[in-house]
């Protein structure tokens, strides 16, 4: 069945056109009726230039045709998204839907920029009777959409860290399977797969200064080694033996990574694997469509996907993603229209079409579909990581953006050899604790994780 036919089928279910279908539930949602009072409403949202957003954009025409609600989206680089949204909220701008990263939920909720879903979910005229919050992976709903026990957003564009690798390069080097541990990756696989003369490297870790450095590079080497950014008293834990071991191993891997890796963002890391320059990357599950698209990738059947390697503390993969939430600044009617869109975009009804278009749904049911499991090799390791995962992989508290900037600066200097691992850790710890002191994290009034 073509993508178009799948899309139309799923949307028809969402619009109650196929109420007699075996897939339909007891009470199908007449989304057209729900949207009738808001026909002509224009909603504004920020999207990223990533597969999950391109996927929902493909499906938008059917939503707009059925509801009469127009979605105006602006595509913004991830590194600029939070700042752009915060400026919009502070100036009472035009955003009607908030794109909320895992680590922004505390800041957005505590500033009152987003609405709890309870404001809308009790209104049957605008709420899908099959909303089914229990249908989301609990880890995702909690980490991406919930703060202080209150749910603000629904999971959208969800990621698990995975090991993507070139099976052919590994086979040529004498390996018949991917590394199971970080120790294997660092000390056995990466050195053997690196050949600077051929401009081929064993591993690439996206480490561009900014959130990519702090969250995707620096933090990735703490948890599997038993380390953490903070201890239970909110003080730096970077000087612990475990944290130091993880960061030292990141530094050790530099010799098997491409020159200039500190300037590589996600696109460069994915492209390095796609073009045969790099043998292994630890990247978000959302980049699977890019790596399987012959227009953007040469890797073809050589692509392998596995869980992130295990460290001394076990297999603790990165967790990332976003939720969509109703912006408090929007007029009342616009908020209700936004709620209708958010439910649709994250619904079980379109989950399969969304996945087939290149997105990663937060709905559990779609990954039980035999066709989905057979077609997308990333599903099994991704779902396994979501069954466990670490929601505190990056602290979700409001102080994170300021701390992220510090980690980005000194984490980059550590990788470049401008500071030792110990020196950089001490700088980050001192500056981080100064911020937390000012924000009241040492007087017992604030919690690290909600």
UniProtKB/TrEMBL annotation:
Compartment annotation: Periplasm
Signal peptide region: 1-26
Superkingdom to which the source organism belongs: Bacteria
One Pfam family of this chain: SBP_bac_1
CDD domains: PBP2_TMBP_like
InterPro entries noted in UniProt: Bact_solute-bd_prot1, SBP
Gene3D superfamilies reported for this sequence: Periplasmic binding protein-like II
Family: Belongs to the bacterial solute-binding protein 1 family.
Protein name, entry field: Multiple sugar transport system substrate-binding protein
């Amino acid at each position: 069945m073509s993508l178009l036919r799948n899309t139309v089928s799923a949307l028809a279910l969402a619009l109650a056109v196929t109420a007699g279908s075996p897939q339909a539930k007891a009470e199908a949602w007449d989304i057209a009726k729900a949207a009738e009072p808001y026909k002509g409403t224009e909603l504004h949202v920020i999207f990223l230039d990533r597969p999950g957003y391109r996927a929902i954009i493909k499906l938008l025409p059917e939503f707009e045709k059925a509801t009469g609600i127009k979605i105006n989206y602006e595509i913004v680089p991830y590194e600029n998204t939070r700042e752009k949204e915060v400026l919009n909220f502070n100036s009472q701008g035009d955003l009607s839907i908030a794109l909320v990263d895992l680590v922004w939920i505390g800041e957005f909720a505590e500033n009152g920029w987003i609405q709890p879903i309870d404001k809308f979910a009790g209104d049957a005229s605008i709420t899908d009777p099959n909303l089914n919050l229990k249908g989301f992976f609990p880890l995702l709903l909690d980490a991406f959409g919930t703060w202080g026990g209150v749910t603000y957003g629904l999971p959208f564009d969800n990621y698990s860290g995975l090991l993507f690798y070139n099976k052919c390069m590994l086979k040529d080097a004498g390996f018949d399977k991917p590394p199971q541990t970080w120790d294997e990756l660092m000390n056995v696989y990466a050195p053997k797969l690196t050949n600077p003369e051929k401009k081929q490297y064993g591993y690439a870790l996206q480490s561009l200064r900014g959130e990519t450095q702090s969250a995707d590079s620096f933090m990735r080497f703490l948890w599997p080694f038993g380390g953490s950014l903070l201890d239970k008293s909110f003080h730096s834990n970077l000087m612990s033996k475990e944290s130091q071991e993880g960061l030292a191993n990141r530094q050790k891997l530099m010799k098997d990574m491409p020159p200039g890796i500190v300037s590589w963002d996600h696109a460069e890391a994915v492209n390095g694997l796609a073009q045969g320059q790099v043998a292994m990357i630890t990247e978000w599950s959302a980049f699977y469509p890019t790596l399987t698209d012959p227009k953007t990738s040469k890797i073809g059947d050589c692509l392998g996907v596995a869980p992130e390697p295990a460290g001394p503390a076990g297999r603790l993969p990165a967790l990332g993603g976003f939720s969509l939430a109703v912006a408090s600044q929007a007029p009342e009617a616009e908020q209700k229209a936004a709620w209708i869109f958010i439910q649709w975009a994250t619904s079980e009804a379109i989950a399969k079409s969304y996945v087939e278009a290149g997105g990663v749904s937060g709905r559990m049911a779609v990954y039980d579909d035999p066709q989905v499991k057979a077609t997308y090799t990333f599903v099994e390791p991704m779902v396994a990581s979501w069954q466990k995962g670490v929601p505190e992989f990056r602290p979700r508290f409001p102080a994170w953006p300021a701390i992220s900037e510090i980690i980005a600066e000194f984490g980059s200097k550590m990788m470049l050899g401008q500071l030792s691992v110990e020196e950089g850790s001490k700088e980050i710890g001192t500056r981080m604790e100064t911020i937390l002191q000012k924000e009241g994290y040492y007087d017992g009034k604030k919690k690290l994780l909600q």
